[in-house]
Amino acid sequence: MEEGVMIDTSFNFTTDTPPGLDPDRWSPTLHLYHQVLWSRDLPSGRRFDLEDARPAGGYLHHRTASGRDFRLSSDAVMQTFTRWTRPDVVSVVSQATEYDRQKFYDLSYTIGSMMLFPGNQIDRMWTINQARGCHPGIADRLDLTLECIRRHYLGEDSPLGEVLHRYRDFFELFETFQGYVEHFLLQDLVSDLGTVKWFLPCNEFQRSPLPKDSHECTDFRERSVDFICSRNQRISRLASAVEG
């Protein structure tokens, strides 16, 4: 990590983003945090150095020793359902208090809720960010996305199997699912056995990814908050170890 950069895991990236714009693209603090935190050694021992790709239309990029260039974009990966307009989702989510909804939304814009994925389109098809947000079996949920990535490393099919295969050279940088999880500090979403911990049941992707009632909505929110807070703590420990 770059020396002299203080990582504030409580910082809300909407607060330094111009009104009406997306923090994933326009928050300068988020851009800096991504660049500093994930420029780390890969399992191979090589560095995953991230360089500023702005203002040429990019966000961050990594160039390998062989000259392979990875263009990366930011994604707020925690689904809050607060912006959904479907009546069935609104009726469930609205049963939470305004305070709880706002608290969850604000937390979802701290660094513990942010990821980098390849941002370049291949053959004009969906990127990973687009696919996980638009696939009806994923609905932007991080736990389901991570399960798809786990299956990708095992060579197994999943709802995101096609898009993850298109970006297989990116995932090869981390060699294994464990390597990917450790690099991006996702350990609190994975059990000791290497399986994904669900915010809501998965049932082999056969059930809807949406909470079906207020009880599931509460469970989803509480488990999501626990994960974001735990990941923020991991990020703080990493930052403190480097600063020390």
Would you write up a description of this structure?
- The chain is an alpha+beta fold and 244 residues long.
- It has one domain (13-217).
- The protein has 10 helices and 4 strands; from the N terminus they run ααβββααβαααααα.
- It has helices spanning 23-26, 28-38, 87-93, 98-107, 128-134, 142-154, 161-166, 168-172, 177-183, 214-243; strands spanning 51-52, 60-63, 69-76, 114-118.
- The protein is globular.
* Share of helical residues: 40-55%
Give the strand order of the largest sheet, numbering strands 1, 2, ... along the chain: 1-2-3-4
Reported for the largest beta sheet, the result is:
4 strands, antiparallel
Number of helices: 10
Which oligomeric state applies? single chain
Please mark out the parts with pLDDT under 50 across 5 or more consecutive residues, or reply none: none
Number of domain units:
1
Overall number of strands: 4
User: What proportion of the residues form beta strands (DSSP E)?
Assistant: 5-15%
The separation of the N and C termini measures 12 Å
Q: From the helix content, strand content and strand pairing, which structural class follows?
A: alpha+beta
The 3D shape can be described as globular
H/E series, N to C?
HHEEEHHEHHHHHH
Radius of gyration: 18 Å
What is the typical, i.e. mean, pLDDT? 90
